[in-house]
């Protein structure tokens, strides 16, 4: 269905003057009164983001039915029903229901805790409101869901646009609308209403409207809310099934590649099993479709149908453990698995490796002499960019400059000027310019002059200074020397220009006069050195991707015990194609002077080079890399868009917390791997044994209902694996599930299992001969049922990644589960349920023989496991 955004943006019409718009919304330039806002909230409802509404139970249930394993089970159930094999159909129905209920409740629980965690991360918006009619307006943070039409909202870089807004004022505002339009380049917005009844266009291209779901790339603005909640353009887009464009994340995540990859291989294998059984039986025994229920049961027996449940439970449990102490919040469950697989972690420098509390250390002129005037001009720049660009808060560098200047000069330097214009720093822009004039100064009055005060990265500022090549090189050398000493270096320059009313643009930053350098020291974060070392021990290589000077970055790395090697700067990256960059990225530890696109390219190159790559960053300039990484990590106080793009949110930018999260991810993955190894080895062995027995015996080795009932008990017991305590080794290496290694493991152990099963046949065949007739078959079935559940219990104990007896710890929930399984295996065939399933007990002597088979099997398993442990893990 064609859908036009202009149809949604409710009153007032997008055209009209600011006052008309505000009046139509019964608001004003001083903002709403709190009581009025409350009343509007009751009338319009909460401003919830459309994607956030929780799924209903029927939907959740339907979603779990869509899972491929469940779909296959349902298909097999239908085949059984068509063939009137009601017993098989009923047991499959029970299996499907149990797995759907477990899955839906697991997901419900996971969603509920994710929602609780989101509360912790609840996005806020800055609004201008008044306590009463008479009070002055104040800017304050309110939760985004409390916004109402008529609210005045202030926007700054990194903000998510919280509702649909009509801009009232904008300075250098560009927004990213990819989520709505798929357009990846930022779009310029302005407060001026273009002429025309519809506000100068239709759809998203009207420059004075900003839509919920877009994000601020640069600049600042204020605007009035024209639509919230279900009335926003984004809601309209979703309800018209227009979908969100450009939201699609990375292609295949490590989770998709490993767990889902294995699942699909198994499904194909399973779908082959049933026809194979049918063909073999038809050829050898001349049986026809009557073997179908047995073939179906064998295929079901092979299915690791609990995989989705185990995966959700193991990951949700890991995420809950991390959230318990409020340190780490996992926003997308599979990201916990991916975190465990990370072998390269890219981090920015500032605030991750350093404290981001810079302190002014140097203020010197062009000749390297201490000169307070340089600090003075740096402070003028900081003060007026802050005021004129209406930045919500100064960045840490500006704050340090302002604080030191205020302390040294006694007053706030810069207040003696009037601000004219400002061009702040932004993603990819490493300098800022404030244009000021001195009021009342006869020299500057009418003939007036504007002073451009520029400060920023030395390379960028020196490029814009009127200097000869030798002098520029000399000054760049001095900046390098300061940076090599570990300082963050800013160059300061000025220019006098005739006054003008036209706004200033980056093109005006030329022919500047060099003023001097300021250098700031930023101490390494206290826990960073230890965290880097611990990550290295756990097989995670840390790489630094920074916007800062190569010298500063190298020095910080050395202080943390991280060998920086040869630092690569962004201009070199620009000369490389993707293949060459992938090679270089693997061998490089520090990339400096990176703009956002460089950070993203490096991350992509590392992924293409076969690394599972995490990225930790908190700013607008980290956004592209957060999206490009396998796992994006952001601290809680990062900008809205970075938090929204991240898969994992940290309470603070603390690498040690991330290291703990990685270990938790590996433990969850270890439990998933345990399940796969155990269930597949056991199922594979059983299927081989059943096929052989089916071909040799004149009767079915197990009735379909018996196969399915024992499957049900095995499944239930295996749930314990999701709660297992993995062994100490589980957190040591990146946890990657390699399908080939898994297949090798499963084949080996499956054959061992089949051997035990066949030995059991031998024993049972003796029993059948001694008992004879129908009773013999029933005893055979009972014997095999018992042996199967007991071997499955043994496999669970001996093949799990969990702590084993040798590690001297309690086995967690697995031991009770295995005990339960053994009790069912021994007692069920002797009970009335056993009789209903056509089973009778064996003479005691055969139990003795079975015990012998089991003991031999257990010994074989233990030896094979010890050998497998010496090889690379599956
Ligand atoms: N307030 C500022 N005024 C002038 N120049 C600045 C300011 N903030 C940053 N810069 C310049 O831009 C460069 C890049 O800054 P950016 O924020 O991209 O990275 P960073 O903070 O240095 O490092 P990281 O990427 O590790 O967080 C800085 O090294 C500095 O030279």
From TrEMBL:
Domain of life: Bacteria
Catalytic function, reaction form: ATP + H2O = ADP + phosphate + H(+); Mg(2+)(out) + ATP + H2O = Mg(2+)(in) + ADP + phosphate + H(+)
Region of interest: Disordered: 184-205
Keyword annotations: ATP-binding, Cell inner membrane, Cell membrane, Magnesium, Membrane, Nucleotide-binding, Phosphoprotein, Translocase, Transmembrane, Transmembrane helix
EC number: 7.2.2.14
Annotated Gene Ontology cellular component terms: plasma membrane
GO MF annotations in UniProt: ATP binding; ATP hydrolysis activity; P-type magnesium transporter activity
InterPro entries: ATPase_P-typ_cation-transptr_C (IPR006068), ATPase_P-typ_cation-transptr_N (IPR004014), ATPase_P-typ_cyto_dom_N (IPR023299), ATPase_P-typ_P_site (IPR018303), ATPase_P-typ_TM_dom_sf (IPR023298), ATPase_P-typ_transduc_dom_A_sf (IPR008250), ATPase_P-type_domA (IPR059000), HAD-like_sf (IPR036412)
Transmembrane segments: 69-102, 259-280, 292-316, 742-767, 811-833, 845-864
SUPFAM superfamilies, sorted: Calcium ATPase, transduction domain A, Calcium ATPase, transmembrane domain M, HAD-like
Domain Cation-transporting P-type ATPase N-terminal: 12-85
Localisation: Cell inner membrane
Topology of the protein relative to the lipid bilayer: Multi-pass membrane protein
Pfam families per record: Cation_ATPase_C, Cation_ATPase_N, E1-E2_ATPase, Hydrolase
Enzyme class: translocase
Keyword Plastid in record: no
Function: Mediates magnesium influx to the cytosol.
UniProt record similarity statement: Belongs to the cation transport ATPase (P-type) (TC 3.A.3) family. Type IIIB subfamily.
Protein name (record): Magnesium-transporting ATPase, P-type 1
Provenance organism: Streptomyces olivoverticillatus
Native organism taxonomy: Bacteria, Bacillati, Actinomycetota, Actinomycetes, Kitasatosporales
């Amino acid at each position: 269905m064609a859908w036009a955004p202009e149809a949604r943006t409710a009153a007032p019409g997008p055209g009209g003057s600011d006052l008309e718009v505000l009046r139509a919304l019964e608001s004003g330039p001083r903002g709403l009164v709190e009581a009025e806002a409350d009343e509007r909230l009751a009338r319009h409802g909460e401003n919830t983001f459309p994607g956030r509404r929780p799924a209903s139970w029927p939907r959740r249930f339907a979603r779990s039915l869509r899972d491929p394993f469940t779909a296959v089970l349902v298909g097999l159930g239908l085949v059984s029903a068509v063939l009137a094999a009601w017993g098989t159909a009923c047991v499959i129905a029970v299996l499907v229901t149990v797995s759907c209920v477990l899955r839906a409740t697991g997901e419900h629980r996971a969603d509920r805790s994710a929602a609780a965690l989101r509360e912790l991360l609840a996005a806020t918006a800055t609004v201008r409101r008044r306590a009463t009619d008479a009070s002055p307006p104040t800017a304050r943070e309110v939760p985004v869901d409390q916004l109402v039409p008529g609210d005045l909202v202030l926007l700054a870089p990194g903000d998510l646009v919280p509702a649909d807004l009509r801009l009232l004022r904008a300075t250098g505002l560009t927004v990213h609308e990819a989520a709505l339009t798929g357009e990846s380049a930022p779009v310029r917005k302005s407060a001026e209403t273009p002429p025309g009844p519809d506000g100068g266009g239709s759809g998203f291209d009207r420059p004075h409207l900003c839509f919920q779901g877009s994000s601020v790339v640069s600049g600042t603005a204020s605007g009035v809310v024209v639509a919230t909640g279900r009335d926003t353009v984004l809601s309209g887009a979703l309800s018209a099934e227009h979908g969100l464009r450009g939201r699609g994340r990375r292609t295949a995540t490590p989770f998709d590649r490993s767990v889902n990859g294995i699942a699909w291989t198994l499904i194909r294998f399973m779908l082959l099993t049933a026809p194979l059984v049918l063909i073999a039986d038809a050829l050898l025994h001349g049986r026809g479709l009557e073997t179908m229920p047995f073939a179906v049961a064998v295929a079901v027996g092979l299915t690791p149908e609990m995989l989705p449940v185990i995966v959700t439970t193991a990951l949700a449990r890991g995420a809950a453990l991390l959230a318990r102490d409020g340190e780490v919040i996992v926003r997308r469950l599979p990201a916990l698995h991916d975190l465990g697989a990370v072998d390269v972690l890219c981090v920015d420098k500032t605030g991750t490796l350093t404290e981001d509390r810079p302190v002014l250390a140097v203020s010197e002129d062009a000749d390297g002499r201490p000169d307070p005037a340089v600090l003075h001009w740096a402070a003028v720049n900081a003060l007026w960019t802050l005021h004129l660009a209406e930045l919500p808060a100064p960045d840490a560098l500006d704050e340090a400059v302002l604080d030191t200047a205020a302390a040294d000069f006694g007053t706030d330097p810069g207040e003696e000027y009037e601000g004219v214009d400002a061009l702040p720093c932004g993603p990819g822009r490493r300098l800022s310019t404030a244009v000021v004039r001195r009021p009342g100064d006869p020299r500057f009055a009418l003939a007036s002059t504007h002073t451009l005060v520029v400060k920023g990265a030395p390379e960028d500022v020196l490029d814009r200074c009127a200097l000869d090549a030798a002098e520029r090189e000399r000054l760049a050398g001095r900046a390098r020397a300061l940076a090599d000493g570990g300082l963050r270096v800013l160059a300061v320059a000025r220019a006098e220009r005739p006054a003008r009313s036209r706004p200033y643009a980056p093109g005006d930053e030329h022919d500047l006069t060099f003023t001097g350098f300021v250098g700031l020291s930023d101490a390494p974060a206290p826990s960073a050195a230890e965290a880097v070392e611990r990550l290295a021990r756990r097989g995670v290589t840390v790489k630094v991707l920074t916007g800062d000077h190569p010298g500063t970055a190298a020095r910080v790395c050395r202080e943390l015990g991280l060998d920086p090697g040869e630092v690569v700067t962004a201009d070199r990256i620009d000369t490389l194609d993707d293949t060459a960059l992938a090679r270089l990225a693997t061998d490089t530890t520090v990339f400096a002077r990176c703009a956002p696109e460089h950070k993203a390219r490096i991350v992509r190159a590392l992924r293409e080079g076969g690394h599972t790559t995490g990225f930790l960053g908190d700013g607008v300039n980290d956004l592209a890399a957060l999206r490009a990484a396998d796992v994006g990590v952001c601290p809680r106080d990062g900008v809205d868009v970075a938090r929204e793009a991240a898969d994992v949110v940290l309470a603070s930018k603390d690498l040690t917390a991330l290291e703990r999260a990685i270990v938790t991810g590996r433990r969850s993955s270890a439990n998933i791997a345990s399940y796969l190894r155990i269930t597949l080895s056991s199922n594979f062995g059983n299927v081989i044994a059943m096929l052989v027995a089916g071909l040799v015996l004149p009767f079915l080795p197990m009735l379909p209902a018996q196969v399915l009932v024992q499957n049900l008990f095995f499944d239930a017991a295996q749930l314990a694996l999701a709660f297992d305590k993995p062994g100490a080794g589980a957190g040591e290496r990146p946890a990657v599930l390699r399908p080939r290694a898994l297949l090798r493991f499963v084949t080996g152990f499956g054959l061992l299992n089949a051997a035990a099963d066949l030995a059991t046949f031998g024993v049972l065949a003796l029993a059948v001969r001694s008992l004879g007739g129908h009773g013999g078959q029933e005893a055979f079935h009972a014997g095999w049922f018992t042996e199967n559940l007991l071997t499955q219990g043994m496999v669970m104990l001996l093949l799990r990644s969990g702590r084993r007896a040798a590690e001297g710890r309690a086995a967690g929930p697995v031991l009770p589960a295995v005990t339960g399984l053994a009790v069912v295996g021994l007692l069920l065939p002797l009970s009335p349920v056993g009789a209903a399933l056509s089973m009778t007990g064996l003479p005691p002597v055969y139990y003795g023989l079975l015990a012998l088979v089991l003991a031999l099997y257990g010994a074989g398993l233990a030896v094979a496991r010890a050998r497998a442990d010496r090889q690379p893990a599956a």
